[in-house]
Amino acid sequence: GVEIAVSDNSNGKRSSEDALDSRTQHEQHAAKKAKPSENTDDVDPAFLAMVEELKAYIAQHGDCIIPMEYAQNPRLSRWNFDLRDNRRWFHQGKGSNLNEAKLKILDDLGYNWDDMRWLDMYVRLKNYKAQFG
Question: Which residue stretches belong to region Disordered (predicted)?
Answer without folding.
Answer: 1-42
